[in-house]
Amino acid sequence: MKPRLILVLSALFLFLIPVAAWAQDPPSVSLEMTLTEDTNDMPSDECGVSDTLAVGEGAEVEVCYTITNTGDVTLNFHDLEDTEFGVLLDDFGFALDPDASVSLTQTVIASANVTFNGTWTAFNAGPTDEVQSMDSATLTVVPVLSGAWRATLRPRRRLRPGGSGRRPRRGPPGGR
Q: pTM score, two decimals?
């Protein structure tokens, strides 16, 4: 190669490095909260698919928080707070790579209507690259009929036209 060509390529390379660093997306995360009724046949590593759920009083419900790193920066520390549960994570160390997700669940016994409001904060040491995402999920408790209340079906008598609904009295032949 000629020295002039090397000089041009070197200058081009030095120019592209700052442009590439400048083009990097800022860190970002997305929180998704879901609810599901906790049953024995549900795999423990799966979250629900809806942010609303109606269950009977006393049902076990899993509240699932799924955080996804939607940026280009690995985030190494995490805080999670919920209006109903309080602080769930505080400076929790976990490397969440770009495009990766992680879930955390909490179980609650349904006793009243409630809306769970979650705030997930992810950051790096310093703190730097701090980002936050919020979501909510609503649980509705529906009344459950007690086992003591049962419907009893009894056949009704048919009324005959012009009759009283009573069965005719059958006496001996001849009307005696």
A: 0.69
